[in-house]
Each structure stands twice: as C-alpha cells, then as structure tokens.
Design brief:
Chain lengths: 97, 477
C-alpha cells in the first residue's frame, strides 16, 4: 500500500508538486487503483509459451535528403518560451561562485 | 432534401457531384449548425474561419474531376485537439499546450488535405486523451447531444458529439483504450480503432505509444471506411507503421463465423444492453452467420494490465512537457522550480494521477511485479485472441457495460477506468475494432444508444466494415 511519503517521493521524481491538502486524497485513490491492478500478481504466467518475442529488427531511416538549413527555424523558435534570437535560453545550472 | 450538415459523407459526396449543393453551401451549413449548438454542447474548442482557398480548390476538383474526384473533396470534418494542423493551436485540451501552435501537419491531416477535405474546427477531449467522459478537459465538459444531462464518453467526446449532433459530417479521434469506440457507442455513431501500425501517428500528441491509433468517428460504417482508407498507409515519419501485405491476407468469408465470449457478458453488463446484444446476435444468425462460443480468459485481467502499461507510457511521453521548449512556462528560482511549477500548473488532476501511477509501476522494486507482469499478461491475451481467430472470423461483445452516464456520476477514478473494460483488449492486442450502434436503452426518460463491438484479426478491417454494415442494416430494418 502506498504511503503519503511514497506519493510525495514519486511526485518529486515526476517533477510534479502536490499540495499538502491533496496528498491524502491522492494516496487513497492511488491505493484503490493499485489494489485493482494488483490482481496481476495473482496470475501465474511462468509456464506461458508466449515469452518468445517475434524477430525484431531496428527500423532506421536513411539519413538522406535533408531539408534546406534554417527553413523551420523561425516556426520552431516562435514556440520557445524564452529565446535570444534563434537560441533557446534556459536557467543557468552551473554556479560560478 | 436532407439538410447538408445532416448528410452522411457519401450522401454529401453524391450531392456535390450532382450539383445539388456547392462546397460553400455544405461548409456554411456545418458552420451555422456548429455556432448554433456549440454554446450548449461544447463539442468544439475552436471553430475555424473558412479557408476560402481550400473551399474553392475542393469545388474546382469536383467540377473538373467529376466522378474521379476524391469522395472527401469538400467534406467538412472535425479534428480532435491532439492532432496537429499546421498553424492551428493543438492543446490536447490541456493548459500545458494552451498556446501551442502546430508547426507541421499530422500525416493524417496532410492526407485529408490532399483528398480535398475541409477542417471545421478542433474538438474537445479529456486532457491528453486520458478519460472516458470528456470531463477531464481543461476547457469544460462536452454534453451528449442524445441527452445533455449526460457525458458523450471520451476521450474523443467532442468529436463524437460534433458528428452525432450533425455539426460535422465525420471526425477524427484517437483511441488508446477505447477513446474512439466508447464515445461512438454513447452517442449512437460508428467508431473505428484501426490495426496498430496501419495509420500514421506522426503529428498525434502521444499518450501510450504501444496503444495509440488515429481513426474515424462517422455516421455510417461506409463513411468510417472512406476516411480510414484516406488516412491509412505506411509513413516514413512513423516507424511503427506497417507496409502493405505484412498482415496475412484473410479472404472475406460470407457467411462469417462469429465468436461470442459469453463468459465476459455477465452480471457486470446492464440487462437491457445484454438484451439488445442478444437481439443483434439473433439477427446475425438469421442472416446465415454461425455463432460460436469462445473463451478469452485473460480478458478478465486486461483492464488491470492496461492500467499498468498505459500510465507507464504516459509518464514517459509526458516527460517532454517541461516548460522549456514549448507550451506553458512558469519560472521559479532554479531550473528544477521551472519544471515543477510548469508541470504542476499545466497538468490537470487525472493527468498528474496517471503520471504518478506510471512513475510508480516503472520504479525499481515494482517494475517486475507490475509492468513486466502486465506485459506478460498482454502477450497471453494476444495469443488467446490469435488462437480464437483460427476458429472464428470476428469476435463480438457490447462496446460498454452501460449507456452514457450523468455528469459527476463516476467521480471515483477507478469507476471511470472500468468504462474501458471491453475496449482495452483491442489496444493491447493491436487488433482493429469497430463500434456500431446496435439499439437503444431507456434511462430517466431518455433513449440512449448502445454499441456492438466487433474485433477482427490484424489487418482485417474489411471484415469489420462488412459485419458492421450488416448490424447497421438490421437496426434500420
């Protein structure tokens, strides 16, 4: 069963904040869902013959026919929340002091 | 004459060719109906201005190419808000992408444009296609045109409502666990989830990548087929699309052997839906088809497996939305604060819940108990279906256990998830499936449509169209 601490930890891992007043509700709903999907644990699939995976091959496109440089730059850059000309600007993550 | 917006796609295509109506008249009729009803229904998040050049081009094609012009030329369609149309907002009904403007056309949109189709607007949906009622949209609920006290189903609820209310002639939706078929059943129209890999997802905002497919919602099986054929095909921009001939050819049989998994259709299904289903089976048997009882035992665990695999994929796919490159951007003191603030204020409650669930089932210590077990169960389910298709040509059951429900009725997340109990199997197996109206049931003085769900082997969409058309004919007879 999930605890409030676990839910808070998951939220941090998922880069989401949960308000203190919502944590308990979230944890309870989470528990109900986990109890339901927990039925999978009762299944014995050890002798299933379906483990054999179909032959897979990597699907790579030939890197030919590139588009002309810069044709999409303005359209894409228009979506940047913070930009300096055609550069996407982000917060400094390395401190120099 | 039927009002232009009330026509089916095939009827409108004939009327356009016969010069009974013009493309402009058809467009105007749909736009007028959309503006009249949208305030009440909230089917559209945005109704587009007419693209005059596209209207003129479609008319010109019909005038010059006549009978050889594509049947979709000049046909106004509604597009779910998670499918990109270049230059238009595609928000997936989320605050996160409220101001995101598509920088390119989805392949399905490009194909429809090439066929001369017109786009009426973008339709409401559950946020990021997560939900079964359209109540999880960040922009208000959509009402069911059959009974406005009820939900239209979801997640493609706006597309379903737009078609059922005759605002658009047909629509595109996306289906990860039933998001085309369930709203189609709840609004009395036809919905198709094509074979995994048959339709390109380039330009579809991803939810669960091993499950998602784009497909049509339409007034008739014939219309669903027309749109499916226009959008299907291998696409270099989506490596999961399959080349023609990959699925073993299955010659269409008539009469068909129809498999009925009666062990699934028990107490959990409303009695009057069971009765409508039995009556439809009787009609199919009278028409000469053979009914065969089949067993699909892993179906009982399919929803549990789905609610492990899908959130795992959701948490991965939605990790890209971080407030840095596009979409909602909230700024805090540190880069981590930027992520936290943007994702917390951008995602709605259900989206956050599924991201957390996905993070949980993929985390060290739980991945074996949940994700790998679910994946193994999925493989067993796929094999059960494949084995059943050695004996039968199609498998049928009701699309949903109950008709459309009232707003707020399923406020508990798990109760909402159970809506998908029948439809998720086709996403887990990758097989094509169609929901077609099979009758009506009465609830609180309203007559509510219910659907029959038909599954066929990979690549056997023709079987669905053939059997679906017969169910349709029986209902009209």
């Amino acid at each position: 069963m999930a605890t409030v601490e676990e839910v808070k930890k998951l939220a941090m891992l998922a880069r989401i904040a949960i308000a203190e007043e919502d944590v308990l509700k979230f944890t309870n709903e989470f528990d109900a869902i986990l109890a339901y999907v927990g039925q999978l644990e009762t299944l014995d699939l050890s002798d299933s013959t379906t483990d054999a995976k179909p032959p897979l091959r990597n699907s790579m496109r030939i890197d030919g026919d590139p588009h002309a440089p810069g044709v999409y730059t303005e359209t894409l850059a228009a979506q940047f929340p913070d930009r300096e000309d055609d550069a996407l600007s982000v917060k400094q993550i390395v401190q120099h002091d | 004459m039927t009002k232009p917006n009330e026509m089916t796609v095939s009827e409108a295509a004939r009327a356009l060719r016969a010069r009974d109506i013009s493309v402009q008249e058809l467009w105007d009729a749909c736009v007028l109906a959309s503006h009249e009803r949208n305030q009440e229904l909230n089917a559209f998040l945005e109704i587009f201005e007419a693209d005059k050049a596209a209207v003129a081009a479609a008319q010109k094609r019909i005038d010059t190419e006549g009978e050889t012009a594509p049947l979709l030329a000049g046909i106004p369609l509604a597009i779910k808000d998670n499918i990109l149309i270049e230059g238009k907002v595609a928000s997936a009904a989320s605050k996160m992408l409220e101001n995101y403007r598509a920088t390119y056309d989805a392949t399905v949109v490009k194909k429809l444009k090439e066929a001369g189709a017109l786009f009426l607007g973008r339709t409401n949906m559950d946020e990021f296609a997560m939900g079964s009622s359209t109540e999880h949209s960040a922009y208000g609920t959509t009402k069911n045109p059959r009974d406005t006290r009820r939900v239209p189903g979801g997640s493609s609820g706006g597309s379903a409502a737009a078609v059922a209310a005759h605002l658009a002639l047909a629509a595109l939706g996306s289906d990860t666990g039933g998001s085309i078929r369930q709203p189609a059943a709840h609004t009395g129209i036809v919905g198709l989830k094509p074979t995994y890999g048959s339709v390109s997802r380039s330009g579809l905002i991803a939810m669960g990548s091993s499950l998602d497919q784009v497909g049509p919602l339409a007034k008739t099986v014939e219309d669903a087929r027309l749109i499916y054929e226009a959008i299907a095909g291998q696409d270099p921009l989506d490596a999961t699309t399959i080349p023609p001939g990959l699925c073993p050819a299955r010659p269409m049989k008539k009469p068909m052997r129809i498999g009925v998994p009666r062990h699934l259709i028990g107490e959990g299904v409303d009695p009057d839906i069971r009765a409508a289903f039995s009556a439809t089976l009787d009609a199919l048997a009278d028409a000469g088809h053979t009914l065969t009882d089949i067993e699909l035992p892993m179906s009982h665990h399919a929803l549990a497996a789905y609610y492990v695999i899908m959130p795992a994929e959701v948490s991965t796919n939605l990790a890209r939305l971080d407030g840095i490159r596009y979409g909602l951007a909230q700024r805090g003191d540190t880069l981590l604060d930027d992520y936290l603030l943007s994702r917390t204020s951008g995602f709605g409650e259900e989206t956050r819940r599924r991201i957390l669930l996905g993070t949980f089932v993929l985390s060290s210590g739980y991945i074996d108990a949940y994700y790998r077990k679910a994946d193994a169960a999925r493989a067993v389910l796929r094999k059960e279906y494949a084995d059943a298709f050695d004996k039968v040509d199609a498998i049928v059951f009701p699309t949903t256990p109950s008709p459309a429900f009232a707003f707020g009725e399923k406020s508990d997340p798990l109760a909402m998830y159970l809506e998908d109990i029948f439809t998720v199997t086709a996403n887990l197996t990758g097989m094509p499936a169609l929901s077609v109206p099979m009758g009506f049931v009465e609830r609180d003085g309203a007559s509510l449509p219910v659907g029959m769900h038909i599954t066929a082997p990979h690549g056997a969409e023709d079987t669905l169209f053939s059997l679906g058309a017969e169910v349709e004919k029986e209902r009209r007879a």
